[in-house]
Fold:
Amino acid sequence: MTPPRKKKMNLKQRYALMTRGLDWETSYQKMDDVFPYDTFEGIKITDWSKWEDPFRLTMDAYWKYQGEKERKLYAVLDSFAQNNGQLGISDARYVNAIKLFLTGVTPLEYQAHRHFSHLGRHIRGVGPRVAAQMQSLDELRHAQTQIHTISHYNKYFDGFAEFPHMHDRVWYLSVPKSFFDDACSAGPFEFFTAISFAFEYVLTNLLFVPFMSGAAYNGDLATVTFGFSAQSDEARHMTLGIEVIKFMLEQHPDNLPIVQKWVDKWFWRGHKVLGLVAMMMDYMLPKRIMSWKEAWEIYFTEAGGALFEDLSRYGLRVPKYADIATDEAEHISHQNWAIFYQYTQAAGFHTWIPGDDELDWLSEKYPNTFDKYYRPRFEMWREMEAKGERFYNNALPQLCQTCQIPMGYTEPGDPTKIGFRSSVYKDERYHFCSDGCKDIFDDEPEKFSQAWLPVHQIFQGNCGGADLSDVLKWYHMDQGIDNMDYNGSPDQKQWDAWQAARKKVAG
Amino acid sequence: MAVVALKPGYADAVEIRDRKENFHGNQVVYLHWEEHLSFCAATAFPLPPEMPFGALTEKLIPQFYGMHPDFKSLDWNSVEWKIDGEPATPDMSKSLAENGVGHKSLVCFRTPGLNGYKGSCS
Structure:
């Protein structure tokens, strides 16, 4: 007798079994004890089953797709290495953007991996729990594939070797690090809002499109391929971001003010962190894609505008200070590059004064402000450099207590005045670069009064010593090699030697 | 508003990281030369509260701001001071503390007539 043939499950059944079917209600422990993190923030969830799974992927399918993608990526990386891809980039100055990416962004991918795996354990609803588990794996893969991609550049250029060590210590890397630490030390719903929604949904295009298009324009095939490989993951992450917002807002009306507060906070924090990308687009790419201001208009003003229009039916409004951030898109790249130019002695990548053609490009892209406020600044520095008096700021900068960036941002509407804001909490004074950063502090002074501000830490004696060279040693920054201007750097010498050798061969 | 924390008593257990006591007898003082934004931000110094205010104009500011082309034309008698946002007339012989400069105070100075490279506030 033949046994009855088992009916093969269809995709939907299989999906249900492999995700929601893995859940159970605890019996001898209270659910609240098993899931201690998902209620304290005040977000009210009445029915977890209403969660719409955004990924629609089972783990075995995930494994299969990602394995295929990774095989393709590594084939490209091998060929990039075998064909000496480093010789094909537009100019060695480009590599400094990749240094910033590896030291500033890649460690955040790893942090995201860690925290999504935390959420993949600690969210009561099985839908978001499975989604978080898969995103956790994505983030680990991204960290790994970025490190593998960029490791090729580490063979030929300086500034890459100590990236995880630098991420934890270097003054400007405390900006992305503290941004992520803030999110990871928040509750699960705030983390979702911060990373999945504000960063991955609202702002992600401003990080990935410039970096990946920048790589494409500048002949960096390896990074482009990594970007493509990550793209389908990012699409899923965005879906998770929007789903989590809608879910919270649909579950209970009391959630709206909490979610709005987080959206305001994380939009502002994200905007400040992305100032590093702004600087990269306008100053660090030898072949420009578009200006930061143009990117902001397309990816925030237009795309973000449509998104918040759509979300207004839930009562959610455009993030507070979005207008100020848009005003700052005119200034932020210039102000940031100026910070790094004058602190080049403490930067883990090289800086330079833009050439005449680059200054002209900036004048054209920023017709209302560049010639009036920023071009003279670069011309003054160029004159000083020509006289052998290169402008270094030898004092340490005042930092914003919230975003930890040197307080170099100007008053909205007046680019001649630095914006100063301050608050007093428990008899201590705190300083902020903007109303956005001040509001974030005032809402949670307990949290931000603990900020590890690199400048104050140096003064307190916690960074290897009082002299610059002590601190650089503590950063694992190789002096005269990793830091200072591109002109005269070992990177430049090597690149020039390669170019000369090519000319010779070409005859 | 106060932080929403999981741990009971979290807010009271917070260790403020930048208390004056952590600076080995110094206090942090910020300096800012208005309309000279080639110095990207105010600068920070760990200074003894008993240091005379005059040491700022005699030592610190020349040392750290002296390379600016405007500096050689700077006339200290016409400088306008602000301490923590309030206009001030500091007594150069008295200490920072006696002049009202406390921990994490911001001391701004404006130099009328000097407003940066080619008047660009740079």
